[in-house]
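Format is sequence with structure; example below:
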Amino acid sequence: MATIEFKNAVGRVYFDGGLTDEGKLIRKSKTYRNVAKNATADDLYKALEQLAQLSDFPFIGADKVETSNVIN
């Protein structure tokens, strides 16, 4: 029987980089590695939101991206 094993996780923060000449949003991102496997959604969001305040660009949102191995 195959199982899924946690490999790693990153937090990705998205910023508003302005608009193109055509009026489309320019979305910039910054990735923070080594997010703890057991980090709660609230704690991760608060941490990424605080890190986003160090940027000159306005904060749009954040993602947690997990990578896993499928093992047989």
